[in-house]
């Protein structure tokens, strides 16, 4: 039995964006991304808005059908474009859940909190009878810091942090093994973010959960993640153990993200060198040739415009894609 719960190989997600025949255009939201997630670990996924991290999470759950690639869940191939395998996802929907970024938009305003949490229990026939259903709903609400009085209320009666707790209770109600946490704290006040992140950690310890934790803020991801993957314009550019990535990043894009993390100590902050990112992220409709980061990279060479850098294991468990890693890090 593998220790890996999820394996993603050469995953691509291209969305049609108009045009006909040869001129048909595609948004290359995720392009040839490979990684794995071990059982019980948290893999953080970071990058600027539009880098493809949310699409990666949704595609591996097959909420979006992949364009190509291979996805293995607990040694079972659930998608393989080459072998034309695309299994029925219903049995996996219970095991693989998602918590969405916007807790208000993801909760039906016409349903009570009890029914929102109970809906998943109904779909998967997890309750013996009405009383069992009610008991399961209350247990889940209490697990996330709410109580039985909240069950008959509607989403608009809750704060952002409480609504996110409802979203988490809904995901947990079906007793999942794996949760894609899709920017679950980005829409919350900074004061609430730490509480919710701590709750994710407590629930992971209690239920043995495995997370893909997506966020654009590296300072949040580094607290909760065992390993971190960095995405840029649909490509994974670096992946390593969290501590290794923060202290010994190799890729210029990761280095600039790390240098943007606020440092509490003014002395250390003054001494640390900020590496500013210039220019905007190019369009995924028409990404730069070769390395997609080359239009913003201070180390770009002619080769960077001509060849796509290979995804390589530089040191054990530390992967990166760049032609000039040795020069940049010497
Ligand atoms: Fe910069 Fe070239 Fe490395 Fe891309 S491959 S990150 S452009 S040095």
How would you characterize the overall build of this protein?
It is globular and about 70 Å long. A hairpin with a 2-residue loop joins strand 10 and strand 11 (235-241). It is an alpha/beta fold and 330 residues long. The strands form 2 sheets. An 8-stranded mixed β-sheet has the order 7-8-9-3-10-11-13-12, sandwiched between helices. Strands 2-1-4-5-6 form a 5-stranded antiparallel β-sheet. The protein has helices at 53-60, 90-95, 113-123, 130-143, 160-172, 190-207, 218-224, 242-247, 252-259, 266-271, 302-306, 325-328; strands at residues 4-16, 26-38, 42-46, 68-73, 76-80, 85-86, 96-99, 178-182, 210-214, 227-232, 235-241, 312-315, 318-320. It is 32% helix and 24% strand. It starts with a strand and ends with a helix. It is built from 12 helices and 13 strands. The mean pLDDT is 92. Iron/sulfur cluster (SF4) binds next to loops.
Radius of gyration (Å): 21 Å
Distance between the termini: 40 Å
Tally of alpha and pi helices: 12
Task: Determine the strand fraction and express it as a percent band.
Answer: 15-25%
Q: Kindly state the percentage of residues in helix.
A: 25-40%
Instruction: Kindly state the number of beta strands.
Output: 13
Weakly predicted, low-confidence segments: none
Strands of the widest sheet, in order across it, are 7-8-9-3-10-11-13-12
The distinct ligands, each listed once, are: iron/sulfur cluster
Outline of this structure?
The protein has 12 helices and 13 strands.
Keywords:
five-stranded antiparallel β-sheet, alpha/beta, binds iron/sulfur cluster, 330 residues, globular, 24% strand, eight-stranded mixed β-sheet, 12 helices, 13 strands
């Amino acid at each position: 039995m593998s220790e890996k719960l999820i394996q993603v190989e050469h995953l691509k997600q291209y969305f049609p964006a108009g045009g006909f025949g040869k001129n048909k255009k595609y948004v290359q939201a995720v392009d040839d991304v490979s990684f794995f997630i071990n059982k019980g670990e948290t893999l953080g996924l970071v990058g600027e808005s539009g880098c493809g991290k949310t699409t990666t999470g949704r595609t591996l759950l097959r909420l979006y059908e992949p364009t190509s690639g291979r996805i293995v869940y607990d040694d079972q191939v659930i998608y393989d474009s080459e072998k034309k395998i695309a299994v029925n996802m219903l049995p996996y929907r219970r095991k693989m859940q998602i918590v969405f970024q916007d807790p208000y938009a993801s909760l039906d305003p016409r349903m009570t909190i009890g029914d929102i949490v109970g809906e998943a229990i109904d779909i998967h026939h997890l309750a013996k009878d009405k009383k069992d259903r009610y008991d399961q709903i209350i247990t889940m609400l209490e697990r996330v810091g709410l109580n039985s009085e909240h069950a008959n209320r509607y989403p608009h009666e809750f704060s952002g942090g409480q609504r996110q707790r409802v979203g988490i209770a809904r995901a947990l109600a079906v007793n999942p093994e794996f949760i894609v946490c899709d920017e679950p704290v980005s829409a919350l006040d900074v004061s609430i973010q730490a509480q919710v992140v701590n709750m994710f950690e407590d629930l992971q310890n209690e239920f043995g959960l495995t997370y893909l934790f997506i966020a654009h803020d590296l300072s949040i991801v580094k607290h909760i993640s065992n390993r971190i993957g960095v995405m840029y314009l649909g490509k994974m550019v670096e992946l390593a153990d969290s501590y290794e990535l923060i202290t010994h990043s190799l890729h210029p894009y990761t280095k600039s993200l790390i240098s943007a993390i606020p440092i509490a100590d003014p002395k250390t902050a003054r001494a640390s060198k900020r590496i500013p990112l210039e220019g905007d992220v190019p369009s995924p409709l028409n990404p730069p040739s070769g390395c997609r980061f080359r239009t913003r990279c201070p180390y770009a060479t002619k080769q960077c415009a001509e060849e796509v850098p290979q995804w390589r294991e530089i040191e054990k468990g530390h992967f990166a894609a760049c032609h000039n890693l040795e020069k940049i890090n010497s």
